[in-house]
Amino acid sequence: MSKVHCLLIASLAAVSLVSPMAAVAAENDPMACVVTVDYSLNNVSRLSYTKAFVVGPEAPFSDDFSTATRLRSFDASLSVESGDPVVSATFFADVSTFNGVGFQASLRVRDEAHGETTSGRNYFYSSVTGAAGTHVTTYSMTCERAK
């Protein structure tokens, strides 16, 4: 066998050994994310939340930003589905005596280098005295591989 064939076979063998390890490393890489949540009542901003965070398969993220009178939290975790990292998030904010707002979202990050974004909007109307009106919650979450 010629030296070129031996070198080619050795190179292919090395690539086949390294590629699965690179794939496993990519699946276990943490994700760097930014979440932004805005809540308004009758078009007046009542709560703005922005948080940059890093989440990994073995390192979920949790932020309890409650006040003395209001329960508020944001939690995120990372799993891998079909080789793609998936960031799952849960947000809750107690916004008045009778009302709370929240959402759950999952973001499959297929383009890890440039990131992916998910967003949503939810609203409800209340006639409860002191909290009457249109309540609107919007959110956006962007994630990419942590550098």
Task: Present the secondary structure layout.
Layout: H1 3-28, E1 31-41, E2 44-55, E3 61-64, E4 72-81, E5 84-94, E6 100-108, E7 116-126, E8 133-145
Antiparallel strand pairs: 1-2, 1-8, 3-4, 4-5, 5-6, 7-8
Pick out its properties.
single chain; 147 residues; alpha+beta; 4-stranded antiparallel beta sheet; 1 helix; 55% strand
Q: Estimate what percentage of residues fall within beta strands.
A: over 45%
Strand order of the main beta sheet, please?
2-1-8-7
Helix content: 10-25%
In quaternary terms, these chains amount to single chain
The number of distinct β-strands equals 8
Number of helices: 1
Overall form:
elongated
What order do the SSEs take from the amino end to the carboxyl end, as H and E? HEEEEEEEE
What is the radius of gyration?
22 Å
Helix-and-strand structural type: alpha+beta
* Main β sheet profile: 4 strands, antiparallel
Question: Span between N and C termini?
Answer: 44 Å
Low-confidence runs of at least 5 consecutive residues: 4-25
Average pLDDT, all residues: 86
